[in-house]
Amino acid sequence: MNIALFFRCSGLHCCGGQALCHPATAGDTVMLSLSPSTAIKSGSWAVGESVILTWIGEQQAVFPSHTGRASVNILTGALTLSSVMVADSGVYVVQGSDPQLQANASITVVETISNVTLSVNETNLIEFSGSAVVKCSVSSGSSLSFLWMNSSSEVTASDRVQLTDGNSTLTIVNVTRYDLGPFMCVFNPVSNGNSDALNFAISYGPDNMALTVNGNNSTSFSVGSNLTMLCSAQSNPPALLQWAVRGELVNTTGPLLELFSVSEDQSGPYSCLAFNNHTNMNSTITTNIMISKSGSEQQAVSVAAASAVIVWTLLLKGADVSFSP
């Protein structure tokens, strides 16, 4: 007779036939029942080579290994196991003699996880020059299936990321600023065991500098303008900022350099220098500022100069030149 054996754990239908069933949790009650339902007057249950029980009519005999934990429904032949243990994992076979039939299914029993902990070699690292090694462990649990998460994303192996020791050890080679975390490991499907979150402090930069003048990228300004230069750099910890004008350091630190009522002689290259005392790295950005007279001022100067030339020419010719107030 063709018959399928279904595995029910805690009253839920889990799988059928000879499939590997979803794990049960240690301590659960597990039922193995036949589909389609069949009246079996006599038969036996075994796991591997060990017989669990036999029955004939209303009489059943449970072997010592399962005394108090196993019973059979004498009408349907369904086997019930209570307080299952990891040792109960295996292939279960029902053998019917009236009528004659045989079916089997696999059970996996998993012990719940407790005390999930992470150990790490170092949490303060420098970008591109340090590697992080994180190990995940538990006080108890079985059929461990390690899964690493970085925030809400699963961590997968790559050129820089290594998962070893059955995925229990996570190694990140040459960490970057994007490896801050939080990292955690999770376990088997019946425990939902999570470790505490782990974050790294990664020093990086300074780089990706930017320098704006009066809020934009303009470099040409009129005499008398007020200039506000703002410097920024990506850096952890924040970079120390120093200003230089025409190659000479000035007594101004921080992201802001302000100039009021500028003159033409203040034209030239303005530089912002950034330094990170954790990474011992520095970076510089320079903008060349041109300060000149406005169009109206230049026109007035040109007119005045032209008038002076005319007057001087007339004087040379002996003309009588007078000036009206």
Q: What's this entry about, in short?
A:
The protein is mainly β.
Model description:
With 325 residues, the chain is mainly β. The chain has one helix and 28 strands. The protein has one helix at 295-316; strands at 4-9, 12-15, 24-25, 30-35, 42-47, 50-56, 59-62, 70-72, 79-81, 90-98, 100-107, 109-110, 117-120, 124-126, 132-137, 147-150, 153-154, 161-164, 169-172, 183-186, 201-213, 220-222, 227-236, 240-245, 248-253, 256-259, 268-276, 281-292. The chain has a five-stranded antiparallel sheet, with no helix packed on it. Strands 7-6-5-10-11 form a five-stranded antiparallel sheet, with no helix packed on it. The protein has a five-stranded mixed sheet with strand order 22-28-27-24-25, with no helix packed on it. A hairpin with a 2-residue loop joins strand 5 (42-47) and strand 6. 24% of the residues are buried.
Spatially, the strands of the biggest sheet line up as 2-1-4-9-8
Low-confidence stretches: 9-20, 295-316, 321-325
Work out the strand percent.
Answer: over 45%
Q: Structural class, judged by helices and strands?
A: mainly beta
By CATH reckoning, the class of the largest domain would read Mainly Beta
The CATH architecture designation of the largest domain is Sandwich
- Round the mean pLDDT to the nearest integer and report it: 83
Q: Any idea how many domains?
A: 3
CATH fold assignment of the largest domain? Immunoglobulin-like
What is the quaternary state of this protein?
A: single chain
Shape: rod-shaped
Largest sheet: 5 strands, antiparallel
E-strand count = 28
Cα Rg: 42 Å
Distance between the termini: 129 Å
As a percent range, the share of helical residues equals under 10%
